[in-house]
Structure formats: C-alpha cells, structure tokens
Fold this protein.
Amino acid sequence: MSEPISILEQTYQWERETALLESTQATLEWDERTGMPPAAGAYRAEQITYLSGLIHQRRTDAAQADRIDSLVQWANQQPDNEDLAVTARYLKRNLVRRQKLPLDLVQAMTKAIVLGQQAWSQARKAKSFADFLPCLNTIVKLKREEANLLAIDGSAYNGLLDEYEEGANEAHLQVLFADLRKQLVPIVAEAAEATQKRGTILVQPTIPIEAQRSFNRLVAEQVGFSFDAGRLDETDHPFCTTLGPRDCRILTRYFENDLLSSLFSTLHEAGHGMYEQGLPAEHFGLPLGSYASLGIHESQSRLWENAVGRSLPFWQWCTPQLQKQFPGLFAQATPETLYRYTNSVSRSFIRVESDEATYNLHIAIRFEIEQQLISGALNPTDLPDAWNAAYMEYLGISPSNHAEGCLQDVHWSAGLFGYFPTYTLGNLIAAQWMETIQQSVGDLDSLHCRGDFRPLLEWLRTNVHQHGKRFTPGRLVERVTGRPLSAIPFVKYLTQKLTATGLLVS
Amino acid sequence: MSEPISILEQTYQWERETALLESTQATLEWDERTGMPPAAGAYRAEQITYLSGLIHQRRTDAAQADRIDSLVQWANQQPDNEDLAVTARYLKRNLVRRQKLPLDLVQAMTKAIVLGQQAWSQARKAKSFADFLPCLNTIVKLKREEANLLAIDGSAYNGLLDEYEEGANEAHLQVLFADLRKQLVPIVAEAAEATQKRGTILVQPTIPIEAQRSFNRLVAEQVGFSFDAGRLDETDHPFCTTLGPRDCRILTRYFENDLLSSLFSTLHEAGHGMYEQGLPAEHFGLPLGSYASLGIHESQSRLWENAVGRSLPFWQWCTPQLQKQFPGLFAQATPETLYRYTNSVSRSFIRVESDEATYNLHIAIRFEIEQQLISGALNPTDLPDAWNAAYMEYLGISPSNHAEGCLQDVHWSAGLFGYFPTYTLGNLIAAQWMETIQQSVGDLDSLHCRGDFRPLLEWLRTNVHQHGKRFTPGRLVERVTGRPLSAIPFVKYLTQKLTATGLLVS
C-alpha cells in the first residue's frame, strides 16, 4: 500500500503547489484591479504572463499525468473511497481536456486573448466594431479549432460549455432557452409597460462614496460574508476572487447618485464570496475544495442579489438601516417603495444593468449568436447585424451604437465562449434552491425582515458549499431539490414577484 | 560573436525572470502587511515560502552559474564595455557568495528565521527574553557558521556586512563608530539637558486619520514621490517595497495625536521610494537597475526625513500648509517652533523614535553587540545584560523591560546581522551628499521654503539614482563628493542644527 499512498500524496501535493501559484496570480490581478499605480501595468502583465507559463507547465506535466492515471486505477480498485473517486475523476477529466489541445494552439490563443481584450477595450471606447474585428476573427478561428478538438457528442460548442459547466449540453440548453423565451417575452411586455406607466417612484439621493462604503460593508457582513477571511474593495467592474482558502476578495463600484447599484453589486459578489468561504478549506486546490461549476457559483450570487436583495423582507430590514445610516436622505422611502423600485422592468441595452425579467433574454441572444460563431453559421463580420436584429426580435429595441450593442461585454474578446449560458443556469438554479429552501426550512421572511440571514446561509453551506466538486452540477441540483433543473421555479418566482409589485395582473 | 551575445541574453533573461518572481513575492508581502484578512496569514506564508523556494532554485542554478562565468570571461576580453563589466562582476560576486553556503545551512537558516520572527514577536509582547532565547541561540549558531564561510580578510563579521554594503569593513567601522561616539556623547549630554530645560514648546492637536492621510500624500507628492508609479499606504511598521520598475509602494503609520510622526515616516519612506523610482527601469532585475547598497539607500531616506524634513526652510513651506489643511489646529505654530520641536534631543530607549543626535549611539550599541555575538565573545544568554550595560554607558539610561531593551528590533530574529551599521552609514553619507549639494547647487533654502524640492531631487537622480550598482558604495561617495566617507560632515551638520535650535551653545 505504501507506493499508491505516496503517489496519492505526490499528486495532491502537485495540485496544491499549482494552486499556490494560481492564487498568487490572483493576488497580482486583484492588486492590478484595485490600487496598482497607473504606470505599473506593463510590468504587471509580464509578471502575470510569467506565472501563467509556470502554471501551464505544471498543468501539462507528464509525470503528474502518469500519477493521475495511477490514481484512476487505484480509485477503480477501491469503489468505496468516494473522495478518491471524485478527485481522480476530476483530475483525469481536466487532464484529458488539456491533452486534446496542442501547445501551439494554447499559445496562439493566449496571445490572441491578451491582444483581444486590449483591442476590445479601445474599440468599445471608440464605439468602433471595425477596430475589434481583426482580433475577433483570430479568436473565433482559434476557438473553432479548440471546440472541434474538444467536441462532445458531436457538438463542438458542447466542448466549450463543458469547461464551465460539466455535463451541460447545447441541445438541452436550446430547449431551455426556447421555453424560457416563450414565457418571458409576454411577461416583459406587460411588466415594462406597467413600469413605464407607473412613472418615477423614487429618486436616489446623492451620497458621498465614503459613506456608501461603510453601508455596503455593513450589509455584506449582515448577510454573512466573513471579513475575517475576506475584504470588500472597489473597482471598475465588480468581481470576486479567491487568494487563498481563507482569503476571498469581493469588489463593488460606487456612484454618488446610485447607492443601490453598489448595494446590489455587493450582494451579488458577497454571494459568490460566501460560496468560496463555504468550500472546505482543507481541500483548497483540489476538486473537493473547488466550486462545482460556474452555474452553481452564479446561483449563489443571484440568490443573494435577487431572491434576497430584491425581496420585501430584505427591504423591511434594510430600509430602517438606510434611514439610520443616512439621516434624512431616505425619509420618504418605505420598504414597499424600495421593493417596487428595485423590481422595475424595462427594455434596455446593457445586460449587467438589466432587471430579472429581461436578464435571461440578454443571455439567450448571446447564447444563440455564439453557437453560430462557433459552428461557422455566422461570420464575425456579420456580428453587429445579427446582434441588432436579435435585440429587435427579443426586446423590441435597437442599440444606437456598438458600445451599447455587441461590444458591451468583455467575454468574447477574452475567448470566453460557452460561458454566457451559465448566467442563466445560475438564475434558474437559484430559484430552484429557493423553492426547496422554503419547503424545507420554512418561513425565512420573518427572519429576513429582522436581518437574520443565518439559516439561509447555513442551508447553502450544508447543501451546496461543503460539497465542492463532489457532485456534477446537474447531480447536485437533482440531489438537493429532488428534481432536474427546470425553468419552472424561476418563472413562477418572477411572476409572483412582478404580480406582488403590481407590474403583472395575471 | 553570436554565441556570446546569446549567452548574454540568456543570462540577463534568467535574472529578469527571477526578478519577476521576487517582485511577485514582494506583492504578496505588501498585501500581507496592508490589508490581508486576518485569517489568511497561514496560507500566505505557504505562498511566500513556495515562491522563495523557486527563487532559491533559480539563484543556485548550475547552468546560470556557467553562463555567468562565460560573461566574466567575455567582460575581461572587452575592457571598454563598462555595462558588461559591472553586470558580470556583480552577478559573479553574488554567485560566489551563494556557492559558499551549503544547501542544508540555507534551509536550516530559512526555517530558523521564520520561527525566530514568530518567537520574537510573541516574546516582545510578553517582554520575556527567555521566550526568545532558544531561537536566538539557533540563529546565532547558524549565523556564525555562515559568517565563517563568507569571511573576508579574516573577519567573519565582514562576510555578513558585505551582503548589505559591499566593501564595508569591520575594522574601519570600529574606528568610525569610536570617533562618532566620542563626538556625540558630549553633544547629546548638552542638547538633552537643554531640551529638558526648555520644556514643552508644542502640543500636537488630535487629527482624524483620514485627514492625516491626505496631508501625508500632499507632502510625499510635493517632495517628488511619483504616485503615477507608486502608492502610499498604511501599516504597523513603515517600510518601502518595490513591486516592479514603475511600482514602488511606501507605507507609513498614523496616530491621532501625532501627525508629525506619520509625516517623518512618510518623508523617510518617500526618500527610499524616490531612489527606487530613480533607478533605470530598463535595467530592472539587473545590477545596473538595482540600488547601490543599503547604506546608499538609507542615505536617501534620512536625507529627506532629516536634512530636508527637519530643516527650517521645510517648515517655512510646510507650516502654512498645515494651517491651511487643518484650520485652527496649528494657529499658534510658527516655522521656528516646528523646527525646534522636531529637533529636540532626549535620551530614550527606542531606536526608531530617537532623534538625530542619539540615533547613531543606538546603532553603535547594536554594532558592538552583534560583532561579539558573531565572534563568540558574547553568548546569547548574556545579551540582555550586555544591552543594558551598553545603554547605561552610551546613553546613561537603563531599560525597565526587554521590550524597550534588547527585544525592540526585529533584525536579529530575522537573521539580519551586519545590517544595523548601514543605518549609520546612511546618516553619514546623507550629510556628505548635502555638503556637496550645497557647494554645487547653491542656495537650496530659498527653494525649499517655497516648496520647490525639484533641484535637490534632480541632483540625486543624476549623481546617485541613475547609476544603480555601477559603482560600489564607497566609490560612489568618493566619486560624487570628492572624498572618502567620513563622520565630519554629519557632526558638523548636527552641531550647526542644534546650535541654531538653541540646544548647543558651543
């Protein structure tokens, strides 16, 4: 037995050491996006590129590949050792994916997406799709090659999806999105019209950023984000990153005239952060210590942002906090006003600013277009036309420029194809969690209106967080909620909420 | 020629890549000492240890050692190529030092100083020397081994000194310190008595930290620290660190009732920072892009902290700034009061809080004791007695506990022997720079009282910063000031200042 144990230890040690480098790289990136001096960018890129190279070498190391194969054999011989089985399966899965990609393709892609993101950033500023097109052509060409090498069940797109959401499937998603679209389009039509009719119900006061900071911290702490093992900072594009098993950094952004924007960003990122803080620290760097999938991750952020943050009980707790923290500024506001204000529905161009009713339509458009880009049915040159046509068809609006059109998201410039659908999966999964929670935990509303979010977090810790990658995302959903993922709970949740806030009559 | 050029490029590339890792490690450490969440410490230590290991491997790489030997040969064949000569010489010098140290000694030392710093930190809190003694015994034992292996001209201590200050020499320092002590003791006696007689001349107002932050930033910017390529943050023990050729981070600390303490820390660290910002960025990671020595580094920090920050012209500029920034709080203060207040002399226990007159006596005590620890003349067990006796002899005071006695500095617990003397060298060199500057640049006072510090910084850039390690520290001083380092300019500077502030009659 001593030989296999030693191989096991070596394999785990190797993965943990890779995680040391990955989390170090995350620290460099966190610093880059928080307070790094302006002139330091070029050298920071060199540091990150160098670490990426070291990490890539480790991930494709031949000796580790051999050890992983031994682990798989050993796991087969010990069917009762579930931890080993899970770990061996995931390490092998990642290895197989990597082995399918030739080094020159990986290197060409790395270069293309560094240049792609720079070009995208400038093109977006200039609102010029032509400035981005050459890079997009290169990225799509390389991504098609990659997708063809990774193809699953004859679908190239599936090969990309699988990176972010194991087991997700193009055909299944097409059905899901078609169904969702059919149900959402009439809801959006009615609710957007009602929102417009209702007119202005709240004008947010001007609040200095410093005061917004302490309020955001207060809320993040209240919902359960640990500041002993985390920080809340400020950046241009909010995100969450993990620098170690007890070091999760969340970032929000502030506008003097929109406290609520920072608040929802904070709740969203705190949702991600609490998931990371709930993963088993002793398995950090190994599958059992890693998040299940991007869809599961997003189910946490959207749950805290929307199911909690845009609920009446939340505002019953939060409104007095606002009034206490900012004397006089929210004197007219009631929990009901804030509940209705934060659930308005409107047809708008920008995904990240969109409401719960329209959000998944933004994603459906991206999902449709990226499938066509990968299959070759759509040429990158024709992206703007396809984009604008889809917005007209799905939302009845047409962007006046590419910055609020097909250049708004960074994803494609960073080579992230197959990533967008996980946002919608997150929304659907969150609704399915909430349905189960309400059935099993009971009346959360009376807790939440007192600011007690601990039972909810406790449920998520027990049912989702602690498992890491023990279950595939689909299996996890089924195991916890008793049925496969569906759009039903989400549509029900949305309909109830929009009815309660007076935007739907049905 | 193609072969040598390729070797040259490979050698430089290797050093630059090592610098990528070193500056990444510095980023981890900066984050650890600024805002890292409390629970993240253990994993951060793992990240840093892992990177240290990678760096150590690279520094002792056999192929690089061979390339460096080729460089040395090639440099000998091209006597006119000064850049190559300097680079080859320094790389070889570092290589030779490293090759003298067996791996097991390096590893034992690494472990001893990690444990040593932890033990020291707790022992200092508990004011218990006994708690630190076992670690100190180990460190001193290992350090003696190391020193014997590195010995220069028959002096083990020289081998340690040489790490921080190339060419510095125990025998020469002994003469220097003896001379300095002889001159300082009567100055301190007279000035401390006069300070006491004079009584309180200023009580600092209570100022919120947030307001202190912006004032410190204003002053750092005014003296010339670039915030385009740097940051000013907050920590327990102020320091300066370089995360890249255009990324220098300085850190200060704040006390509500002592704005001036933060100001002098900021000026000190900005002095270090401006040196780093003045090194040639294109040579980052190579000798020509690195600071000349710790003594030269300290000459920059002490020059800005003391020769500038504790001068009358500085206060002529700064007092109105204080009054403008903090309306009403410094209404009674005049440039003269602040000049005198910031140049008071008193016999106190803590080195980092001591004034310019007593500071070098604190160093002289440490220099004397660490020589004896390394030679074996002093047993670590007897350190407290030796320390207290020296304080009584040099300063006429005796610490009431070890926290304000021999446990006050972190250095020895971190294995830093031969480091303390560079602080005094920095003071002496700073005074020698200033003497030369006043002769060559002319009347700086009339510029400084208007807040124009650019000509001074320009002089330092041209004469000191831009050379990196082109000259040994001794050679640099002689080249710029026209004579070897001596204590005369410092004693003259100090005497003049204490006479001007009314503390010396002589």
In short: Strands of chain B lie at 230-234, 240-244, 247-252.
